[in-house]
Design goal:
288 residues, 6-stranded mixed β-sheet, single chain, 8-stranded mixed β-sheet, 2 helices, mainly beta, disordered N terminus, 20 strands
């Protein structure tokens, strides 16, 4: 396995274009691009675009990943990791006259996992800021909750956050209406405003071994219909980092691990069978 700083692939203005093969764990370095507003109170720091992460006889998987940031309190910032993962089964290649894939394969199941890690480099005596996960979505049902700062006492977010904004795929955030709310923000997820459907069936949870890892898993129910189309899994992970504890590093530095599973399905007589498990994982050193 390569370390997270051992490989840099086509870094162009903070956006990497790369192709990965199944079951090959690589490390990436992501540098900050020119910050730009994305219209919801957050500013984009950088990301990857249209990268193929799995390519096998059963189908293929592309992904987009971007990271954005906004001020939160006098001592911290909020960060938003967004991934859009495209799972395409072999059957779809038949519709588009693409050779070299098993065109009998429908989409069966899969997952996307996002894990956060504090940046540390003992050789450089470097350490990143402390990470505090806040929310991740989409989920299988609508909900509303309150989040508060782990580090700061005085809010300093911009007017967009103050008034309340949609921050992607059914998630929205805004100032708490409570008079004594302190640093509290109101977060809500609306299933009806998101891409969540009854098929595929989506499950969202924390990892049982890593509280900083958010997991989304899906399973196709009707493989003759939903299984014969490309599925886009649109995920968001919101977290907070302090702006004062980092040493010999960028205040935005952290480690992100993006992992996924792609499993096709094929029919024999009257029942469906799982294809091979294709997995991949990349470890990204962000904004060092």
């Amino acid at each position: 396995m390569l370390s997270e700083i051992s490989l840099v692939i086509l870094m162009i203005s903070g956006i990497n274009y790369s192709t990965l093969t199944p079951n090959y764990n690589l490390g990436y370095s992501l540098t900050s691009a020119s910050s730009r507003s994305i219209g919801n109170g957050f500013d984009t720091l950088g990301g990857f675009s249209n990268a193929k992460i799995i390519d096998c006889k059963d189908g293929y998987v592309y992904y987009n990943l971007d990271i954005s940031k906004t001020e939160y309190t006098d001592k911290s910032n909020l960060y938003l990791v967004h991934t859009l993962t495209q799972f395409t089964p072999g059957y779809v290649t038949k519709l588009n006259n693409i050779p070299n894939y098993d065109q009998s394969r429908s989409l069966g199941r899969g997952y996307v996992h996002l894990a956060l890690e504090q940046y540390r480099d003992l050789d450089k005596n470097a350490v990143g800021s402390v990470i505090s996960p806040k929310e991740y979505w989409p989920r299988s049902s609508t909900y509303t909750t309150s989040i508060s700062s782990t580090f700061g006492a005085t809010v300093s977010y911009n007017s967009s956050i103050q008034q309340g904004v949609e921050i992607g795929n059914g998630g929205s955030i805004g100032a708490s209406v409570s008079k004594n709310s302190g640093t509290a923000l109101s977060f809500s997820f609306s299933k009806t405003m998101s891409s969540v459907t009854d098929d595929p069936r989506l499950s969202t949870q924390n990892s049982p071994t890593n509280p900083n890892e958010a997991q989304w898993s899906f399973e196709i129910i009707n493989k003759d219909v939903a299984g014969k189309t490309t599925y886009y899994l649109d995920t968001y992970y919101l977290f907070e980092m302090d702006n004062y504890s980092y040493e010999n590093a960028n205040c935005d530095s952290f480690i992100l691990t993006y992992s996924l599973l792609f499993v096709s399905s094929y029919k024999t007589l009257w029942w469906w069978n799982d294809g091979h498990d294709y997995t991949n994982s990349i470890r990204i050193s962000c904004f060092l």
